[in-house]
Design goal:
Oligomer: single chain
CATH topology: Rossmann fold
Order of helices and strands: HEHEHEHEHHEEEHEE
Strand order of the largest sheet: 3-2-1-4-5-9-8
Pfam families: Methyltransf_25
Radius of gyration: 16 Å
Distance between the termini: 39 Å
GO molecular function, one term: methyltransferase activity
Keywords: Methyltransferase, Transferase
CATH class: Alpha Beta
CATH superfamily: Vaccinia Virus protein VP39
Protein name: Class I SAM-dependent methyltransferase
InterPro entries: Methyltransf_25, SAM-dependent_MTases_sf
Length: 209
């Protein structure tokens, strides 16, 4: 089974995000693995009028929220089932597009540039950063924002994941990697889990220089 087929099998078995959150909102951005927990879109700075790319866009909920705030959004996901669900769910929202593609293939082939790139438990966790980060930087405007989140690393070794390889790095290692591939003002932190949770979330933000 190919990597794309593995991810598609995983996607088919996944539940989409619920329609309304705890405060009654129909769109919202969630960086962590816990519902209604952690920071919001302010991590990215103002998004109105900005072109946003999400790598590993899933059902499109995070990207759709940014579009409701005035961004234009493109979501890329390796699983065809993700594109189908996202297009069905957000069909009425203008300024939002979804494509099926592997992240490095898309970045190598596109001539589009972006003001913001985000990855929430997405491609940045599953693709070799020495390959992915320079590709991301090549498609970003100077001063643009890259932000991503995933589980904290147990070590800096590459470990097998459910549908691919997880590239687990420490906060310091991510800072070094980003700096070496054309990013600056790197901020890397751990978001503590909510009460009852036992694993936090790593959140990293950097600016394209």
């Amino acid at each position: 089974m190919s990597l794309a087929e593995s991810w598609n099998k995983y996607a088919v078995g996944s539940k989409p995000r619920r329609a309304v959150n705890a405060t009654g909102e129909t769109t919202w951005l969630n960086w962590t693995q816990y519902a209604d927990h952690g920071p919001n879109e302010s991590v990215l700075g103002p998004v109105a009028g900005r072109r946003v790319l999400e790598l590993g866009s899933g059902s499109g909920s995070n990207l759709a929220h940014l579009v409701t705030l005035g961004a234009t959004g493109l979501g890329v996901d390796v699983a065809p089932a993700r594109e189908t669900v996202a297009k069905e769910r957000w069909a009425g929202l203008a300024g939002l597009e979804f494509r099926t593609a592997e992240a490095t293939a898309f970045l190598n082939e596109t001539d589009e540039t972006f003001d913001v790139v985000l990855s929430i438990f997405g491609a940045v966790w599953f693709v070799d950063p020495n390959i992915l980060l320079p590709l991301i930087r090549s498609r970003m405007d100077a001063g643009g924002t890259l932000a991503f989140s995933h589980l904290p690393a147990g070590s800096q070794n590459v470990k097998p994941g459910g549908a691919g390889l997880r590239h687990d790095h420490s906060l310091d290692a991510w800072e070094r990697l980003l700096t070496s591939h054309g990013f600056a003002a790197v901020s890397a932190s751990l978001i503590d889990p909510p009460q009852g949770g036992n694993v936090g979330t790593m959140l990293v933000r950097a600016l394209a220089c």
